[in-house]
UniProtKB/TrEMBL annotation:
GO terms for cellular component: membrane. GO terms for biological process: signal transduction. One of its GO terms (molecular function) is efflux transmembrane transporter activity. InterPro entries: HAMP_dom, MdtP/NodT-like, OMP_efflux. Residues 52-78 are annotated as: Disordered. Residues 141-194 form the HAMP domain. Belongs to the outer membrane factor (OMF) (TC 1.B.17) family. The lineage of its organism: Bacteria, Pseudomonadati, Myxococcota, Myxococcia, Myxococcales. This is Sensor with HAMP domain. It holds the Pfam family OEP.
Amino acid sequence: MTPATLAATLLLATAGADALTSERAVALALERNPELAALAAEARAAEARLEGARAPLPSNPELSAALGPRRSGGERTTDVELGLSQRLEIFGERSARIDVAAGERDAASARLAARRVELAASAREAHARALAAERLAALAREELAVAREAARAAERRAELGSASRLEVNAARGEVGRAARAVGTTASRLAAAQAALRTLLAAEPGEGLPLAGELPRPSDVRPADGEALVRAAAERRGDVAAARRSLAAAEAEQRLARREALPSPVLGARYAREERADVLLGTLSFELPLFDRNQAGRGAASARAARAGVELAAATRRAGEEVQLALARLRAATEAASAFDDGAVSGAEENLALSTRAYEAGKIGLADLLLMRRSAVEARRDHVEALEELAAAEAALARAAGSERLVTRDGR
């Protein structure tokens, strides 16, 4: 078990059996996700590059030395030469290099923020799907118990001569269908819990004590679509990363143009020749006859053009995703609201009444099965509608670029 996995496991264990709410799942995912740690390391590396770009000079001074004998006639002397030189930047290369590094640092930070938003939405959705799968598994077990009771009632009626063998066989077939539903929902629950464990960096196979409830339509506040579109264009991590990448690319263009100009190298040289001391100042620079940084300027220009296209695409995509998420949320709210008018309770009441009526011989098995399936489907559809409502809320928060649900606190 890795240290991160052990820590996540201990957090789950110490949180209590009733503590893994949706928000707790988000907190654990943001704290333990390894991809976030990798992106944070990338941001720190970009910060280190920025510190390097802020150095006052682009390179270290260069020290040179020379020593050798000199013969002049019959006299022999030793010549000594020392030199110190420093390359300078006088055309704004340093400021351009700082702008490049700052843009890359900000883009890395924005990518980290974008991944946090994505992970928070995924954790909320995974928690809701696990919670819904748990509810559906419980419903399936209840339905199996009801089907078995109906089968026993059919057998009792058959013994009294009030039901045919056909009804008994049909009731037993309904038990088989209900048993199959139990297995299906158990598999769905296992898959949902595995997805949630992955996001939380929990140990494989470890049980997750889920807590909380699926959202109700009354919990969802109306969202201002235009405000969310504007907010997404401003605060979404992918848009911010594209914007900062464009700034870095434009700064790189400036740097590439300025690097085409020769950088002077200033220095001083001391020499001792034939017992005479010589002190000279030196100035040297390259002649830009062949290499004028054509490749660097071309690559920087292409990168800037690409960054501009990516920024426009990211901004447009943010608006489209917000509109799509709003439409999904409206549809999910309407679907979940359809069950608030007593649809589920009415179906359950009909099931109880029809069961008693069947046992009293007032209705046949076909009517009982019809009522039962109607109640089963209503309860299942209700849970799935609430699950979709939770997923739609998470999708809207993701599209708006918020780690929090924008339909709850307006952020």
